[in-house]
Every structure is written in C-alpha cells, then in structure tokens.
Prior knowledge:
By secondary structure, the chain is mostly helical.
Amino acid sequence: MRAPMSDLLALADDKLMLGHVQSDWTGLGPILEEDIAASAMAQDDLSHAQVLYEHLGDDPDELAFGRDVTEYRCCDLMTVPDDFDWAIATSRRFLFAHFASILLDDFAQRDDADLAARARRLQAEQAIQTTHLNAWMVRLGTGGDSARTRMQCALDVLAPYAGMLFENIEDRQTRFERWQAAIAPALMDAGLTCKVTLPDAAIEGGRCGKHAEHFIETHAEMTQVRAAEPGATW
C-alpha cells in the first residue's frame, strides 16, 4: 500500500516548520547539554524534511521554500509562538515526536521501496528524539511545584492544536489512538495530563492549507532569503 502524498507532505512540512522554529533556541537552552540537544533535534528535523521532500519531487528546495502559504500541509501546532518558554518548546516537541514516530514506522512498512528505505533511515534518529523528550517531560513534571505547573500550563495551551495533527491523515482514528497510547506513559510518570480530542473530520486547518496567522508570519520569515534570491538552495 502506497502512502498518500498528503501524509508524506504533512510530515515533511511539519518537520520543516518545527526545525525552523526550534532553531531559534540555539544558544538559549536552559543548560548547555540541552541547548546542544535541542539544536541537534532542529537540525534532524530539517534534514528529515529534506529526505521526504526528495521522495516527493525533483526539487526539494522548491517544495520547502517556493510554495504559497496555502500549499503547505503542516499542522499549526508547529508554529504556535512559544515566546521562549522552554515548557512550551519541550511539550510541543514531545507531542510531535510521537506523531512523527508513528508515521515513519508506517512509511517504513510500505510497498514503495524508496519511501520505505527513507523512513527506515530516519527511524533511529526519531527514536532518540522521543526517548530524550520522554525523559525531559518526566524530569520537568517531577521537578517541583513550579516546574510541574509550567509544564501543565504548556500542555493545556497546546492541547487544542495537537488534535489537528490528525487532520486529513489516513487512518486518523487508529493513529490518534496509537499516539495517545504512546504519550501516556511519560505523562503518567511526569504527573501531567494532556486532554486532546480528535477533531471532527469536517474541520479544516493547516493540513488543508488554512493556516493561523502565526504560521503565515513564520513562513514569511523562513522564506525571505528565497524570496530575495530565487535561485538559493539549502
């Protein structure tokens, strides 16, 4: 069974935008080791996006930077402003990392040999991300009243956006249930909750090209070099 282009493009666009947003944290992490780790994860996501774009088209640079805002299929969870709040940045990465793991695991089993090979190349790095983020969710959730309160507030802010990860996605109900099961252990160990519901299938958002203003602003920032130098490549 071949993966629908919409699922592939959604994941590639998610990773592109999150890698761009997360790169703003370079040099600003709360401790040196986590600053390095966060920067590495941003680089991973950008490179993962490129690998997936290469499968989707002959010109990954055009796919990444040359489309109109309405042509991007990423979830607006990726561009919710974190205002340099580490709790929001970490919680967002955690929620998305498990979603990405599910899609990559599925893509690795497809009968499209090129896609399956690409997904298998990315699985190991994705697994490192999820393990790292699980540990930080627990560390912060159990790190005292202030840390736990900040993490819970972050999850409450992000929860309404997180359900839209599954907008216009194949097997959305099954994948949503798998995702909930995947994030549950770390949340339980952290003493945190994340009340996410699967939106009605008729609701349209980023996966259909109907983006929030914060996505449009981030897209403009990300593509300004390409707009100034149309032949630029990454």
